[in-house]
Recover the amino acids of this structure.
């Protein structure tokens, strides 16, 4: 049974270069926090922060200054960046090489890559390209005891060892402070064209299911949101088509049979991403894709009557609901509680944002099962990283 | 590992297992266990203490609960086609899952299926074909390997270039933890907040528990397919063609390279596919999707190949011709059996721009150690399979093969790559883990494993070197705190 290990340990370790000074300094802070029991709130650009989640903290651990591209080899379509790098900066660099990171979370365009990965945030492009777990190849993170872990790698296919990358993606920083990530990029499509079609969610879903075309994004927009964005006055499908000229032309022709369509500028997607007020309540409901039209029909009217708007990533079965928060008083909170409570009964749900006073009352903890508690204990035994942010008990 | 650890746990283990699954489904005699001494990795033989083959989900749960009660180690095994020794079960109970073959449901409207772990990969695609669907990950062993094994290894395959690996196609898994507890990871009907334990489980090589059922996403059959065969007089120019195609933004469904020795082996076998036998390398490139525009992409790929120095490019038109081209590729490992009695099928990944350099380096290493390397691999992903045929009865040749393999692994690490893209670490790659990961990273992997399998009884001794775990758990920083 014995095969020899042949001198590998003495060789250089290219995948594990020395930890940078900044990472080492951050690790020292976490180690100190662990020893002293100091709760840390990890912050990036500060656009999203805890989204109203009940995070307790004695001090903040800012990563906004930890920016920059560590390695970018356009021919590999991979990039390694420090976690504090804003998405829009990254986008500008990749665009210069005819590439992009097709990840478009809602909120500020300058949110950081670290926050995007830590919260597993995605947007309409996830219909074609998936969520952060599908884009991250590797990462460096600091555990709650101050250990620096370098998981995954910089290549597009990798099954070496247990998958710590997927584990910290979407963990909201509670298993480790992300300091560096390696991501996979894509070549920009030759043609990137967006159509607006006035149609129903049911019709749109039927077209998507039967169609030979895979759009980059297919987002249903509720009537009020369509009006706000200046793309129509009724429920509207925003369809983003990419590929070569012949393909996009044929796909657009096919979609036009569904409803009258008109071209809109691709910047409409950035408009959508930044449309909601920072203090709004946001709830994401989801179901299987065959049920999404029914969910949309129930949800969109409730949300619009309450003064909000909705949009849906049809192929992923997600309906995202935004409710403006008018004031910070008890009456308004009671109103929100009623509407959000009604929404939560309609599908599998993820609450993205809510006034913090309502959070504990309405949202069950996200990591309360025995395995999740065990994982948290293994990676942050002192509960010093963003404690409470997943609604968990310390 | 003591060789009789399972029997040591309970001398009457075999009869207690037989009481759960039936006499005929428990093997305990050395002669009966011979078939289970090895998997797809040659050169390793390790006898399980005994083997048990439950036929239902409930039997599987009962078996694992009994093993938990007795604190006995076990190794889950599907078809045994794994190439990293992950299913070797020295002194453990081998838990064969190949009898759990039910496809529990296929939901055409939502394009997904729920299957038991013993369902063969190609069987699922055949069943889904009735609905115009298929299961996209397609390892070369797909006619034999099981979905449970695919989940354990996070298996890939040629078409993963465009469609992604197992991880990207699994929505939920019902997991039987080594403790005997049953939990659901992931969610088939909408997202939930919380840790991606499903992502952590996929590719955990049987160390985190046993999949009882797996909900997978199915892919729609594309409207049009074009398969191109490009013929090169040098490996280097083929590698450059790969780079230009990837950089252009065209994402082929698959882009496979085979070098001269591989082509000759295939063409001399019953799997002869009509490859040009005098080529130094061929690329097999498949484009799929909507019919509109596909010929434009095919023309561009053709041009990229010719610009890189292709002697010729042929587009397979008829389905039968495409099937023949693919059969040569998928059966290439079998065809290599003609060259030598034993074959090491290796697996490593490099950044795609490093392909020309690494292929030259592999050739240099092969010459240095006087071995014949046949390369057949997923070029579009940079996922290499340098294979070495040899005669295991020659100690000298075996030693040279091992030295060459170690040198190739180190070269891939030095190029910024990794030691496995789809076959897993198992036992075979354990010696290289220290070169790839820092002690803290290996320690974190041990800590994760400990959460799923605190007794480290599920596939013991695999994936992470034992010494790293010992070091991690001995470190005070890892154990400190515990305020929760």
């Amino acid at each position: 049974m014995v095969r020899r290990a042949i001198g590998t340990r003495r060789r250089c370790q290219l995948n594990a270069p020395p930890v940078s000074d900044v990472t080492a300094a951050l690790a020292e802070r976490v180690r100190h926090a662990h020893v002293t029991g100091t709760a840390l709130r990890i912050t990036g650009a500060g656009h999203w922060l805890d989204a109203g989640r009940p995070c307790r903290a004695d001090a903040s651990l800012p990563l906004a200054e930890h920016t920059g591209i560590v390695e970018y080899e356009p021919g590999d379509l991979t990039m390694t960046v420090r976690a504090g790098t804003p998405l829009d900066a990254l986008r500008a660099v990749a665009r210069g090489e005819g590439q992009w990171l097709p990840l478009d979370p809602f909120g500020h365009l300058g949110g950081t890559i670290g926050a995007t990965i830590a919260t597993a945030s995605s947007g309409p492009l996830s219909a074609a390209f998936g969520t952060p777990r599908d884009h991250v190849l590797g990462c460096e993170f600091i555990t709650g005891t101050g250990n620096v872990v370098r998981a995954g790698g910089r290549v597009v296919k990798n099954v070496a060892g247990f998958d710590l990358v997927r584990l910290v993606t979407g963990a909201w920083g509670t298993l480790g402070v992300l300091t560096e990530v390696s991501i996979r990029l894509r070549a920009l499509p030759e043609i990137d064209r967006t159509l607006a079609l006035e149609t129903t969610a049911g019709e749109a879903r039927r077209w998507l299911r039967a169609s030979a075309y895979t759009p980059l994004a297919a987002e249903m927009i509720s009537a009020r949101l369509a009006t706000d964005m200046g793309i129509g006055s009724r429920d509207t499908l925003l369809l983003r088509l990419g590929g070569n000229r012949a393909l996009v032309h044929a796909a657009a022709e096919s979609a036009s049979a569904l409803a009258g369509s008109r071209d809109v500028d691709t910047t409409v997607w950035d408009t959508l991403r930044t449309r909601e007020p920072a203090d709004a309540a946001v709830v994401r409901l989801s179901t299987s894709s065959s049920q999404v039209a029914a969910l949309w029909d129930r949800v969109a009217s409730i949300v619009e009557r309450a003064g909000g708007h909705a949009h849906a990533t049809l192929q992923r079965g997600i309906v995202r609901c935004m409710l403006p928060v008018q004031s910070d008083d008890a009456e308004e909170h009671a109103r929100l509680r009623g509407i959000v409570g009604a929404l939560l009964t309609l599908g599998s749900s993820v609450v993205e944002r809510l006034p913090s006073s309502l959070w504990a009352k309405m949202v069950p903890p996200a990591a309360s099962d025995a395995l999740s508690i065990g994982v948290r204990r293994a990676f942050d035994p002192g509960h010093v990283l963003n404690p409470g942010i997943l609604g968990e008990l310390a | 590992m003591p060789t009789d650890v399972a029997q040591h746990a309970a001398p009457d283990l075999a009869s207690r297992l037989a009481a759960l699954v039936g006499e005929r489904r428990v093997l305990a005699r050395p002669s009966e266990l011979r078939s289970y001494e090895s998997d797809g990795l040659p050169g390793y033989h390790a006898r399980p203490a005994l083997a048990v083959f439950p036929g239902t989900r409930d039997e599987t749960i009962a078996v694992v609960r009994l093993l938990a009660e007795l604190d006995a180690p076990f190794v889950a095994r599907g078809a045994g086609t794994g190439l990293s020794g992950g299913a070797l079960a020295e002194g453990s109970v081998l838990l064969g899952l190949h009898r759990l073959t039910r496809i529990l449901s296929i939901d055409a409207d939502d394009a997904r299926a729920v299957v038991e772990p013993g369902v063969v990969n190609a069987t699922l695609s055949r069943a889904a074909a009735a609905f115009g669907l298929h299961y996209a990950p397609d390892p070369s062993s797909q006619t034999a390997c099981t979905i449970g094994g695919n989940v354990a290894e996070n298996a890939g395959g040629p078409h993963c270039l465009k469609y992604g690996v197992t991880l990207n196609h699994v929505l939920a898994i019902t997991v039987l933890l080594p403790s005997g507890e049953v939990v659901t990871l992931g969610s088939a009907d909408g997202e939930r907040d919380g840790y991606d334990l499903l992502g952590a489980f996929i590719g955990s090589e049987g160390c985190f528990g046993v999949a009882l059922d797996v909900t997978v996403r199915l892919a729609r059959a594309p409207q049009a397919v074009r398969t191109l065969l490009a013929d090169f007089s040098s490996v280097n120019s083929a590698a450059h063609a790969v780079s230009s195609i990837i950089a252009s933004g065209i994402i082929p469904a698959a882009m496979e390279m085979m070098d001269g020795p591989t082509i000759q082996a295939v063409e001399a076998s019953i799997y002869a596919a009509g490859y040009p036998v005098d080529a130094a390398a061929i690329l097999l490139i498949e484009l799929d999707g909507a019919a509109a525009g596909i010929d434009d992409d095919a023309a561009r790929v053709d041009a990229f190949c010719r610009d890189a120095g292709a002697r010729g490019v042929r587009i397979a038109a008829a389905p039968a011709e495409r099937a023949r081209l693919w059969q040569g590729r998928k059966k290439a490992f079998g065809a290599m059996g003609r060259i030598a009695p034993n074959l090491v099928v290796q697996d490593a990944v490099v950044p795609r721009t490093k392909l020309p350099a690494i292929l030259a380096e592999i050739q240099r290493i092969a010459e240095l150690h006087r071995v014949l390397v046949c390369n057949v691999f997923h070029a579009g992903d940079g996922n290499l399979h340098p294979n070495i045929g040899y005669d295991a009865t020659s100690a000298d040749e075996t030693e040279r093969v091992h030295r060459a393999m170690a040198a190739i692994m180190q070269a891939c690490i030095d190029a910024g790559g990794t030691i496995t893209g789809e076959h897993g670490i198992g036992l075979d790659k354990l010696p290289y883990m220290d070169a790839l990961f820092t002690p803290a990273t290996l320690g974190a992997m041990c800590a994760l494993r400990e959460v799923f399998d605190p007794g480290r009884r599920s596939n013991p001794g695999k994936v992470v070197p034992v010494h790293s775990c010992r070091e991690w758990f001995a470190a005070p920083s890892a154990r400190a705190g515990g305020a929760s």
